[in-house]
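Write out this protein's structure.
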Amino acid sequence: MNDFLLWGGVIGPALLAEALLARYEVLAYGAGWRAPVTELPEGVPYARGAAPGSPPDAYLVYLDGIGKRRVRDSRDGGQLVNALIAGAPELRVLGQVQPYSPLADPLADRPVWAWLRRRIGLLLFLHNVVQTFVAADHRYRPLYNRAVGSQIATQLRLAGYRPDSGTPVVLLSYSGGAQVATGAVDELHTRLHCPLLLITLGGFHNGANDLTHAEHVHRLTSASDRIERVGTWIFPQRWRLFRRSGWNRAVRAGKVTVHRLDPATHVGPRSYISPTAQLPDGRSHLDRTADTVIAAIRAHLSTTAAPGNALS
């Protein structure tokens, strides 16, 4: 009982601090109190994949799930990004965007919070969960969308993207990254005038963001993904009843294609990005996910490529 009270006395205030921090970041961005971080740590490239000397067929921005805390890390140690680079060398891939920080400030690099999270590891998870719901909150959503959309646009420019070039940008998002990806569409359209393709993997989002400027959305899902299913339940804008929501308008316009990746789960040893879970055809779940993403991108490029654009 004493242990329970002790942990409650620690975690309760920490949760309150996390909630306040999540709102502080987006408000600090809006008020101009702090400038978003643009430089990457030494040795971290702005993009990988296709060589900078030649224009890629597309730029792919990977927006990871709520485990994202540094520029370098991802929930799978970078295996999905590596598989995409190996399987589609015509793409230039960015994995450094901080979807859960409007100020583009890596969570693990903040001394006080890093100290707390070494002792209460759950706080990292909770911080990014809170940020996802801040991004979905109608009071903060427009500002959050602008902040992270601007962050993505800046990183794309630093990676060599030229506005008005017509080169497609692919936003590949995992879990809560889908809330950020759908919210970034308008800002990227405004800043870069780029063709946009969205791919959600177990996407957890509220369905409120306008997808008018997205050319298409590929939804990778599974009947065994309980976390994504929760998102379709708790956010009314995902219900068919709310026909005027951004998501339902996109569905009615034929912009959403569903890909079933059964029996993958959201997380764990049978997740979408598991390198060990095997399918009947011998591929791992990771291999199938990478293959599905690459096939969707190449199919899209083949139907929208301007004359003279080479495709692999």
